[in-house]
Amino acid sequence: MPDILRGGAVLLAVLAVAALPLLTDGYWLSIAVTIMMYTALSTSWALFSGPTHYIALSTGAFYGIGGYLVATGMSDFGTSFWSMMAIAPFVAALLAGAIGIATLRLSGVYFVIFTLGLAEMIRNLVSWVQNNFLGSKGLYVLTELEERHIYWMLLVVTLAVFLFGWRLGRSRMGFALRILGNDEEVARHVGIDTARTKVLLFMTTGFFAALVGAIVAPRYYYIEPNVVFSPELSFLVVIMALLGGTRRLYGPLLGVIPFTLLWEVVSASFPSATTMVLGLAFLLIVYLIPDGVTGLIGKLRKRSVP
Amino acid sequence: MTPGETILEVRGLTKRFGGLIAVNDLSFDVREHEVMGVIGPNGSGKSTTINLISGALRATSGSVLLEGHDLTAARPHETARFGISRTFQLVRILPALSVLENAVAGAVLGHRQRWGQEADAFAKDLLERVGLADKISVPVSALTYIDQKRLELARALAGEPEVLLLDEWLAGLNPSELQVGIDLISSLRAEGRTIILVEHVMDAIRSLCDRCVVMNSGQKIAEGTPAEVLSDPHVIAAYLGDS
Questions:
Q1: What's the structural domain count of chain B?
Q2: Chain B residue numbers touching A192 (CB-CB < 8 A)
Q3: How far is CA B84 from the centre of its chain?
Q4: Residue B3 has what pLDDT?
Q5: N or C, where is chain A less crowded by C-beta within 10 Å?
Q6: ipTM reported for the complex surpasses 0.85
Q7: What range defines the domain where residue B110 resides?
């Protein structure tokens, strides 16, 4: 397909997606917001964890920083939503940089466990600070923003993530990440500063996760650190990305849509079974479609063209 | 090609692992266009020496200079950019990348950097050069052992290194492949490349090396042309044992 046609098709699709709030509000819009939010989170997670195979379970921590900073800024310090939304991603990126420097030399399962533990630590630390020093009057995020505004902001973030991922895929750094994911030792010896590359990408995913957390904060109205620093969210982001597949930029999207719908049904009809479904989904995806839906499609295509 | 100026200087290089001294006060020079062999019995410190020069390990003391740049404390990506390329004792191919991408990998952030079509064209030439012209579209997993070694060599050459380190590049090849491999390295030598070769295969050392350093228990016990060192009584004793 010529580039101009492809560009036109993408533009039309984006416009159609952007027009959604004009057609519906209420239940379906709220689902669309959730889908948009997880698309941004899973896609940016996959930018780092896809090629490098460093499975980070810290998305919830960065997302929480976004939500919490907005809430504490507005409730405890009287700042505006917009300024906190602008600051939060940079705070998260700096934190991600520090975490990256400390942990990215850990390999495989140690990295996974460390990020999970770290996210829990941040959650408890923030709760402790909030309860002991900032007063426990409760954090309210009261804005004029409606669901559709949040939706449009998330759409912009999602587009930014895709644009970034698209550029990255065509850049030296993107290629360096793939080499690094194959063999770090080789990567170092062909001139790649592996530590710097990994830390920069990890900071980028932290940045986007916090931005999403900040934008979504008004949806909660009342924020408790224990709720926004959600370990469940970290797992959901990973599961959705793996379900869709991380080898293509649009892969996570194909996981987010079905899984969000499934999650809605499960949460509404069997609220006590969510954790079980989460675990079961993890097992099934890892055993049956380790390369996700996009990997499966690729395999079937290859088979049909002998 | 006649050797030129000294390009790499190894001075008093020492590496301790706890109480073990793997490389002990090793010094030698490598001149431009020269093929320098590093030989010695198993465990004599040859691979450690390669790892010290390439930055994979950091020296306890001593220094490595490449064209006057001090590489002693440099990390691997830095030595690569200064112009040191290497292959690995156990061949390391990038399994999820194509054959072409494997070769391009060496060019993108190496010593002389190339990107995009320029890198592809350069890598393609190198793949032909090492004998993989008809394997460019083959999946990496389908490559034979010697082809994997060729691919690794193409990757190492893709950054146009000043010095190429080959860590037992010929190991594991069968007799007919071995001759092909020796001829290939011999042709690199004829191009005037500077190579440090760690090798066990004596035929290769005799036919390829301008000079050799012989190591035993981490120390240099002889240096000279292959004919000289292989007739040296200390060297014979090191390989065959005393008395």
A1: 2
A2: 77, 109
A3: 9
A4: 73
A5: C
A6: yes
A7: 94-149
